[in-house]
Design a protein that fits this description.
Elements: E1 4-6, E2 14-18, E3 23-30, H1 35-49, E4 56-66, H2 68-82, E5 90-98, H3 102-112, E6 119-124
Parallel strand pairs: 3-4, 4-5, 5-6
Antiparallel strand pairs: 1-2, 2-3
Helix pairs in contact: 1-2
Length: about 130
């Protein structure tokens, strides 16, 4: 399985999805004109990954800013991850947010109610 690596832009997120190293990161700014197109390769990568996942999968989300259409795509991804059984891969999300960004924290809390696996909130005052 090929890695999906993108340094992003002022509108699209940084993405680093590496199955072999077991490192998964999506973050930065996510305000693309068309979130469906921007997230299509990410969702396709995860769909393939879930066919043969690692025994444990921890994903770091660290958004400086994310718009609502991008958040819908992240929600799709998280629901997709929830379809995998715990005996196939132990899933965990680490959601990094600025302590001043209550919206980001509330978004993660809403997502956590949608899934069976843990979403750990990590506050960062230095962002």
């Amino acid at each position: 399985m090929e890695n999906l690596i993108s340094s992003g832009s002022t509108l699209t997120p940084n993405v680093s999805l590496d199955k072999e190293k077991n490192t998964f990161f999506i973050g930065g700014r996510s305000i693309p004109e068309n979130a469906l197109d921007a997230y299509a390769p990410i969702l396709a990568w995860w769909k393939e990954y879930l066919q043969d996942p690692n025994p444990s999968t921890t994903i770091d989300f660290n958004f400086e800013y994310i718009n609502s259409s991008s958040m819908k795509q992240i929600a799709k991804l998280i629901v997709m991850l929830d379809t995998i059984s715990a005996d196939k891969s132990a899933i965990m999300i680490r959601w990094h947010y600025n302590t001043d960004d209550t919206d980001s924290k509330m978004q993660a809390e809403r997502l956590a109610k949608m899934v069976k696996f843990p979403i750990v909130l990590i506050a960062d005052a230095s962002k």
